[in-house]
Design a protein that fits this description.
The protein is of the alpha/beta class. The protein has 11 helices and 8 strands. It has one domain: 3-Layer(aba) Sandwich (Dna Topoisomerase Vi A Subunit, Chain: A, domain 2), CATH 3.40.1360.
């Protein structure tokens, strides 16, 4: 059951300061994400190309984290947030993305009222991919992925209760009754509660699975894909719905 754990930002600063006094300076903490509104000039020879894929996160902080870990270089992908981070290259990157008719789109979000609307916004917003028949892969996190876990950090707030009640009707139709009740009760799980290594693993494996499907891989199981090694990596292919939704779900039971 969720347990109350209340603290202030000043508490975190104090805990970190104390930890560094004992263990030494932490050098890899990202600064708060900030708006970068001054447009960046990009060489026209670069903008003539596109990307194989794009990762769209529901917060600027997670997008910043992936970029800081060079995820975009290692996987030939753009990394953006649903609210337009990084602002100084967002418009240019979107123009580049729309040049690729075979673009693969991945949504990476928290199990929050805001997070579960990410797919709907990507599909229907004119700022994103409205009118394009592109497949969107949902890497999670959804409430259905939280329910089986015994060790995810489940939070609850009055603000989330209000946000849960405002989930658009078209998004509610994609959620089960239990998921909707959970969100409307104010429960949520943030991606930030997982370790950096786990987040990178989930996104990397999600991309690997879609590449396996594109290469014609077939599995003896109807709802799982083997990664090619003997270990159970916890990624489950739930399916691609082509009924005007074009969404593939890759749930990880190793999230927690």
């Amino acid at each position: 059951m969720p347990q109350p754990f209340k603290f202030k930002q000043s508490d975190i600063t104090q805990w970190l300061r104390r930890w560094q006094e004992i263990n030494g300076e932490v050098t890899n903490i990202l600064p708060p994400s900030r708006e970068m509104n001054e447009p960046m000039q990009i060489n026209s020879e670069v903008t003539a190309y596109s990307f194989d894929r794009v990762i769209v996160c529901d917060t600027a902080e997670i997008a910043q984290f992936l970029i800081a870990n060079n995820f975009h270089f290692e996987h030939n992908c753009a990394v953006l947030s649903i609210d337009g981070y990084p602002q100084n290259i967002f418009s240019t990157v979107m123009q580049m993305l729309k040049q690729n008719p075979d673009l693969k789109i991945y949504a990476f979000h928290s199990a929050t009222p805001r997070g579960v609307t990410t797919i709907n916004e990507l599909r229907n917003s004119p700022n994103w991919f409205s009118g394009n028949n592109l497949i969107i892969y949902d890497l999670g996190l959804l409430p259905r992925h939280v329910f089986p876990s015994k060790n995810m950090w489940i939070l609850k707030s009055d603000e989330s209760v209000e946000q849960g009640r405002q989930i658009p009707s078209e998004v509610k139709q994609t959620l089960s009754k239990d998921e909707l009740e959970w969100l409307e009760s104010g429960f949520y799980v943030e991606l930030e509660s997982f370790s950096p290594g786990k987040l990178l693993q989930v996104v990397s494996q999600g991309i690997a699975k879609t590449q396996a499907v594109a290469n014609g891989y077939t599995s003896t199981s109807e709802n799982s894909l083997d990664s090619g090694d003997s270990s159970d990596d916890g990624i489950i292919f739930i399916g691609v719905d082509d009924d005007n939704r074009n969404v593939g779900f890759f749930a990880s039971d190793s999230f927690g």
